[in-house]
Amino acid sequence: MTTRWLTPEEQRAWRAYIAASLLLEDAIDRQLQQDAGMPHLYYSILSVLSESPDRRLRMTDLAERLKITRSRLTYAVTRLEKDGMVRREACRYDKRGSIAALTDEGFAVLERAAPGHVETVRSFLFDRLSEEQVGQLEEISAAIAEGLQEEGTRPASDDVPWRRRASSACS
Amino acid sequence: MTTRWLTPEEQRAWRAYIAASLLLEDAIDRQLQQDAGMPHLYYSILSVLSESPDRRLRMTDLAERLKITRSRLTYAVTRLEKDGMVRREACRYDKRGSIAALTDEGFAVLERAAPGHVETVRSFLFDRLSEEQVGQLEEISAAIAEGLQEEGTRPASDDVPWRRRASSACS
DNA sequence: AGGGCTTGGTTCAAGTTTGAAACAAACCTA
DNA sequence: TAGGTTTGTTTCAAACTTGAACCAAGCCCT
Hints:
Two copies of one chain form a homodimer.
Chain A: H1 8-36, H2 40-50, E1 56-58, H3 59-66, H4 70-82, E2 86-90, E3 98-102, H5 104-124, H6 131-149
Antiparallel strand pairs in A: 1-3, 2-3
Chain A binds a DNA duplex through helix 4.
């Protein structure tokens, strides 16, 4: 089977996307590191917890929401716990379970950092997009995410598309 | 000054975007790690080099194109050099300069990996978007990148927007 | 020519991420 | 209920990233 290379339009879109996502994550990471002393992911952990019932969530659920591996989350929570932002609690129903709970201090830090963070997201992202584009971004993102979510759910297949063998290599 | 929080539409777009970019980078990293034994960034280095005149580029130019720090590039190129994908050469005009040159082996690896990579990008991204959306993605990405590129070029300012002080914290 | 500033690149330590392996508890199923 | 599998989480080593510090070499100015 011959490879369907990317069209010029697709190439341009792909490169622009890669550049934008790298630059944006970098900018946000730097801002949060400066103002809150933690990278974006760590801030997101606090943020998700703050919106969860009782400000706590099981590790697996948290990882699921953040779209990261459990291993990565374990490390992050350990650090946040050391810093007093989060506390680990046992799970009553399931003794295997571990629950991450946002501390008052964590909540305070989050509240202090939020305005600056929102301002950053706004100035680097939303201030540059039309209302229409915001909608488009959501739809595009949702479409992409949808295709990748299932990963875990995907039925066994011996011919997964990304395992095909092998020129204009896109970046 | 009171914070301009994100509207519900913006929140949704932001979260969808974060999730999508995380999932997509993860999927691509995994595919390339599997099939080419290197993460996405490393593959991109080979790709950019392969398209450069004489298949070589100065470190700074390479970093600039990839939107990464020189430090990060140094590490990556060191690894790629160890693996024989890239060779470092001295720069004639500027004795400080260091040039990364794609080796034949590097080129071969790239050619071998390209079809699988393109297939991945296609199946996880472009197959899920309409032609229209591809155009939208490019425009949105370009708009975002434009605002962040200038960073280096930006004029001195004591009130950079993302340094403002501090509630519905977006992720 | 002799500073002094800027630029190109690397180095280093600390922090983070990855993926596989290890554990333990929960859940079957015979 | 014993044994085997699955699920939730952590651990560990290796790989990668970050940012500051460092070293040269080029540049500029007098």
